[in-house]
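Weekly sync notes, structure subgroup
Attendees: PM, AL, DS (notes)

Item 1: joint prediction request from the bench team. They want all two components modeled as one assembly rather than separately. Inputs as received:
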Amino acid sequence: MIRSRARFLLRSPAVHFLLAGGLLYLASTSLGPGEAGDGGEVRELRLSTAQVERLREDLRSQLGRPPSQAQLEEAVRRRIDEEVLLDHALDLGLDREPAVERRLAQIAGFVSTTEPAQVSPVEAGSTIAEGSSAVDGSYVGGDRASQAELAELARQLGLHRSDRVARNISIDRASRLIRAAILAHEPTEAALEAHLVEHADLFRAPDRLALEHVEVRDDDPATARARAEALLPRLRAAEADPATLGDRPSVPSRLRAQPERALARRFGHSFAEALADLPEGTWAGPLASRYGWHLVRITERRPGPEPTLEPVRDDVRAHWRHQHSERWLRERLAQLRATYRIEIAGQQVPPSVLAAATEADEEVSS
Amino acid sequence: MVPRLPLLAHLGSVSRSRPAPEISSTHGAAAGTAIRLAVRYAARAVPGFALVALWALASLLALAALLALTARPAPAAPPADELPFETTEKRERCDAYDPVRLPYFGTTHLHTGRSFDAAIRFVPPGPRDAYAFAKGDAPVKGVDPTGRPTREYYIDRSLDWGAVTDHAEHFGEVGICQSEDDPARFSLDCQLINGFYWQPGVGLPPSVQRSNASSAFTILVSGSLAPSNLNTRMPMCNSGEGDCDASELRVWREMQAAAEEAYDRTSACEFTSFVGYEMSAAPSGTNWHRTVIFRNADVVDRPISTLDLADTPNARPNLQAPTYNRTPLRIDLLWKKLEEQCEANPAKPDCQVITIPHNSNLGGGVGNLVPPMLFDPDNTENAEFQAKYERLVEIYQNKGSSECRWDPRFVPGGVGTVDEHCDFELLDSTSLTSASGVGAGNSASSAVPPSAFSERSFIRNVLKDGLDIQDDYEGVNPFRFGLVAASDSHNGTMGWHPENASFMGHEGIEDAVPVNSGSNIQNGSGGYAVVWAEENSRDSIFEALERKETYGTSGTRPTVRVFGGWNLDDAADGKDFCKLPAHDLAVHGYEWGVPMGGELLDARSADVLSNGDGASGGDTAPTLVVAAWKDDFIDTPLQQLQVVKGWREADGTTREKVYTVAGKNPPRYELDPKTGERVALPQVDPETCSALEKGEPRLCATWTDPDFDADQRAFYYVRVLEDPVCRWSTHWCREHLQIDPLSPTCTEDLEALRSSTEAKDVIRGQTAAFCCNDTASDVYVQPVIQERAWTSPIWYSPDATERGKLFAGTGGDPGARSRSRADGENRNAAGDTP
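Output from the run, pasted for the record:
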């Protein structure tokens, strides 16, 4: 058991990437001064009380009511992760990407009234009226140099961190880049097979039950129940043909294998639910249905056939990619968070606390 | 292949069923069939009475054989040529096949983000998501009040069958606007459809956003839905900026593909989808909407939409705005074009279709300009088309009940009725333009008197009128509707009708907080369409819809069985039907009577349906067997079973009467002797929401009409009332806003919040604005409701001459079609007798 678990772990791409990441991390720290963020020094990350309150306010407008403590904590966690990812994106220079550059150049025009004049169309050698287009907020493309200059100006003003759009693009790019480590990797046939086996329940058709039953009805439910209980030993001892016992049934007395849902349609919901606890092959009960009391023998409990890969390949692949890329993103975020000293509303919080909820999710989902 | 019959060529009948081989109900099938064949053979030589005796003998023999066995194994599906329904598609038969039928819960009406009015409200899911949701495979995303898809919903228990019915109008536009690469996606038209002018929380002040959204909705609607003529698509389609034809086809094919993918063709039969759409004509705001449901994958090339119904098509769509004129939209063109492009189309041999009107409560017409949704057909031909295609009507959905209206705020409170139970889920609006929605701007905020409603707005009145106006159409009753319910949700939440605090509204951002306005809080959580079918497959369910063996519920899943017939007291071997085991009840019911949706022949000549005592049938009143079991998942007991009878007097006036046939009918209102005001009596424990007086898990009645007059046309439908429970809005206000609609201090609590100095309290007070409304307030909200089910009627008609037409579409039992043929033979024989 332990051995197979270990073997599974060894096969798990998440573990591979974790190991690879760890090695790279060791390499980067031992080989001279690493990049900021991944380097040795501890960075500061502060979320002020005002910022927490703003999160609370945002949640309120989304929910139409004040958020619960759990909801607020989740939002705080997400906010911290956003900051971490943003730092990571900036470390990697993802804010130099065209989409962010364009956005930064565009908003630089809003913020500064003097700067657009500096990069006049004439200077930039462009025939397009750059300045005016920047002012009306529809800056698209144009001259590279002027765009880069405007973007740089925006950066000096801190807009690459504070502008919602630029910020979101950078964060999105960073998390995509991390996930891409997994997504670029097409799962092997064996990995899919293993994933299907591990998560067979997700892809399996529901169990089916075949049963026979003897029904007892009476205007007084207690009497019916007592009569049914009295019949049970006779049925178990196979003293009599079940067809001769009990009342004429409300539901056909022998039913071929069918899922719980179909049985619920005939007997009612609570009856069908109670079948799950009955043994196979022996008479049991009595169980109450919408009609009366029933003694039931499960003649066959047929689990949904073991799913084979072919019919569900796309689903399995999508599930594999989603699960592994999310898991890797969480791992990576934990590594990145560990390089911070995090303070929330004036209190210092160890990074491990912030991971608690997501790791719990992981337990549930896997 | 089954030959298609041209309309009404089939013996003057509007039935489209092919003659099918005889199917006997359960045991002794072979013997029963042999005996019946012998009887039929004998019938050629032997005159009427001997035939009756033989038939009775045969039936008794079959019955004796049946009762001899106590235990019955469940039968498997018979071979294809012996199925009681026509098979028009390739698939496996179901493991759970049952010749005496089981109830399957589904929906004939559901929207996703492909509907323009859902698109403008940021609804995320598409048709595939809606099916996955209904099957319980995946959640759907929902939007919060800021328009962001931050919410996620799971269905409580999976659905058996359903159709995504997005608005066909603007299919092309929505397809373009939601595409990722079509250049026209940035057009002004698409800015309207994509909600560009309504993004609360990120832009203009909320009031401006709302006003913009209102305009967008109105522009989208008035171009192609609202006026009666010269309707047109959005400008980008006409100008060539967007290729709306190609896009419309893409969306229509997406609908078909999504349905196909969701359909379980294996013998497990877990889910049945239908290809469908909604035709959304709304002349001058009068709701004429119909959902259109196809039998199988053989469907029209393009949906027939409102644009196809214009009396005068718009020849210059870029220059000529839609106009009202004296001729309203021609609804008959819907059926005629469906006939031409589907049922009578040689290129589509398996195409069959029905149309289902909904929200007649918002379709009352506009003075002399526009008649109500269910107006008198112009001629017999149109009446025949309506009778052929319009088999069913929605009696209840999100936008209120259409059964009937009785408003406790007024004296008298009824619209053509004195039935106090017609106070259920009333909407304070008479047309679409004043119902909940962006176009309304929450205008439904005050009481609308009963006198403001057309009597035709309510189905019970329409059914009554049908009994009368059939004389104008050579005996064809255009309003012979079976009943279903639906949600009409625009959130893609197919088959989910939570009567609790998880209700998410039904139109994306519009009512993401569903209790903050009068029009929002009046929306119900919708209900099911239930069919009694042999199995969960398209052919079996579609034929159940066609023969109207259906009922609607307001959101729970009770099991309701109804049979009507003559001398039913004696039919079951002298036993009370209600004492029979459920399975035998059904076997006998089908054997001796007709199920919901069927028709009773005149007792004086319908002796073949009686137990042989037909000679005394002249003054016999029909008997209804009504059996209902509670939904033991939600677990609300049943309070009472009611039979609602409508009939036509000799002078042409129509009447109605409601009989409580099982359970109790406790008083719900009383008049305050001092003020003369009507006061609602408490029905539930205000703490627990459980009923003060508990009902039963099962109710059953064998009821014979005490007021029967064999010369009067009549219908009988059954209404099952559950015990009172708290409405979703009561739970919502309590759980999310800590305001209790059942508390005597509700109004004071709300007032305290509003005048609080704390900003968050003030906001909570605004959000909860309508939580304290009840039966006594200006905006009518029932804090406590009685969930219910409505079955299709059983009709009675004394007119032998028109029976050929009226009999159409019944045949509600496993041997229905063959039996109706046999009946036809006898009926003709009887008719021939002077």
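Discussion: The CA atoms of residues 670 and 679 of chain B lie 5 Å apart.
Action: AL to compare against the crosslinking data before next sync.
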